[in-house]
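Dear colleague,

Following up on Tuesday's group meeting, I ran the structure prediction for the two-component complex that the binding team flagged. I've pasted the input sequences exactly as they went in, so you can double-check that nothing got truncated or mislabelled along the way. The structure tokens for the whole assembly follow below. Feel free to forward this to whoever is handling the docking comparison.

Inputs:
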Amino acid sequence: MTQLPARLQEIVEDFSYCEGQEKLEYLLQFAESLPPLPEWLYDKRDQMDHVHECMTPVFVYAEEKNGRLTFHFDIPPESPTVRGYAAILQQGLQGVTPTELLAIPDDFYYQMGLQHVLSAQRLNGISAILAHMKALAQDIQSR
Amino acid sequence: MYGFFLVPADFFGIFWVMTMFDVDKIRADFPVLQEEVYPGVPLVYLDSAASSQKPLVVIEAMNEYYRRYNANVHRGIHRLSEEATNAYEGARERIARFINAAESCEIIYVRNATEGFNLVAYSWGRANIKPGDEILLTEMEHHANIVPWQLLVQEKGAVLRYVPFNEDGTLDLSSLSELLTERTRLFSFTAVSNVFGTINPVKQLVDAAHAVGALVMVDAAQAVPHMAVDVQAWDCDFMAFSSHKMCGPTGIGVLYGKRELLEAMPPFMGGGDMIRRVRLDGSTWNDLPWKFEAGTPSIAEAIGLGTAVDYLTNLGMDNIHAHEQFITNYALEALSEVPGLKVYGPPANQKAGVAAFTLKGLHPHDISELLDKDGIAIRAGHHCAMPLHHKLGLAATARASFYLHTTTQEIDKLVISLHRARKIFRL
């Protein structure tokens, strides 16, 4: 099994210890921790990547410094579970290299047990967020 | 549980009569309603507007066909084929009576209502629409009644226009006389909105269209399953509906068309069964309705739909409609007690059994996810009505929809579950 970046591995393990409703509550805690879009991105929505697979309007932007990535998200507060998942990705993947990001299994959320609280259809939607992050990482890598 | 409710008497609208609707008995007819979604969690099915559940008689009728007399229909010179043909065509006769079509040849089997719209757009539309012609729709249409016409007008250089809707989900008819002109060739609209539940004034709209010489197509996908529909009283020219929303199987629907119009239309698809004679240098077409039914049809599905029609007829469409109005009224009152919840569409007395809603601070998908854990099946999304949602400034709504088997206890469970969702999401 591919080793996840340390912080993401920690989050995944925390989730795996949660049972039933606790997973959802933990996801909501992450939702609340998702920071607002930085001011410098306010008027750059057209430069952000739209995760069109999600019915929730999800926009993601990849910032690269010294070969390491930081992701910024714009997701409405009415979508707490999507915000929660994005916050996990943001925190768990803070400072990874494009190569590290591309190595993450697309279905890593199964290790968290998210399939017990979110339907398969929803997981398909939110898993697209990671796919878009990977595409952005690939763009950066190929520059 | 016996549901007691008031329905208007046939002869005097001011009088009311008591009627009875044995919901418990009806529920026992549906095997899936006896199921548990999760251990100890019974199913509360509030998604009939997307697809209805099937009574055992429908399942058994299809099973019987496959077990006892499975054969291809028409032209088979053997007993099984004759029996299959009789069942297949017998279903058509009963469907014709169900919607009061003048003749059974006006009932064309299609895959679903969507195919009905595509058939008319392709066959009638391509033969009759010219550059500059106009087709009028409404802003509350399902994509099935938008996209086929978009394809047609793009090809023909014609124009699509739309009747707007009011804030309360009713049609804004103030501009109808400007929208319906001598350029309008067709007015295609839904009898019942699949989001608002609005019951539109079909006869009034048909008369207005005919007054300018336009034909009318009615989307009855949300009407035929829920209320008595009489195509001759409406005087519509075409009408489409789906079997799977009216206790029948998937894979079959109906296009109704007035005989003289269908006779004049070219075939939609070519192949077996739709021809009279085929020569290497050309073919001639079969009579109605088979001219539009190329290839081996959905035989078991037609038989299943015929049985669903019998089932609904025996219960009485007026009784079903009255029950749904009672449930809708109950639901709208109960939902109004949930803080932050907004139901879209007109009041209960103007709508069918559909309650599309939003809950402030919570995405419809999250609502649906939480309700599912309590065994409650609703729909969340744009319900194939993106223009409607766009106008409301929404990406999605949650939608609970009701049918003949819905109980007040199920509505109570919905409301309790919504309160629980608010608590979990700290609203």
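The domain at 6-36+47-141 of chain A is CATH 3.90.1010.10 (Sufe protein. Chain: A).

Cheers,
M.
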